[in-house]
Amino acid sequence: MSIKKLTIASSIIMTTLSSMPFTAKAEPADTRLISVTQADGSKINICRWGDEFSHGWETEEGYSVIKDEKTGLWFFAEQDGNGDLVSSSQRVKKGEKRAKSKALRRSGKAKQRNQQRRKQAHNKNVFSREHIDGNGAVNGGHASTLSKTSIQGTINVIKLC
Question: Is the Signal keyword given for this protein (predicted)?
Fold first, then answer.
């Protein structure tokens, strides 16, 4: 086959494939329970919750937690005035509980923002990288600080939450 015929055939195939409708599927967070070592050497078991619009971490007992990126320590979550999850002053220690943090999720304005971003994405059927801004938010929305959480060190998968 000549280069010209190959180029034409490739162009026809690519045009056909790129014009085909598709449905993007969003997936929930990976809920495997993992053991993480905090900056002070203590270990806690946590798992991810949520989806691409609203997500975070919680202990195996179901208490929402947030990692302080500066110290490398995990703290129980609480809500701010807008309903966003922020760090409390209480550090997470294995087996410790904080009633106000049990299954805590975004509410109020923060929840409305997430619902709006989800609705925009579903209406436009966009879950591809080119539709997500540099902060991980769809269409210029507000990215969650939890989405920037990174875990360093050894991670051992224990079980699913």
Answer: yes
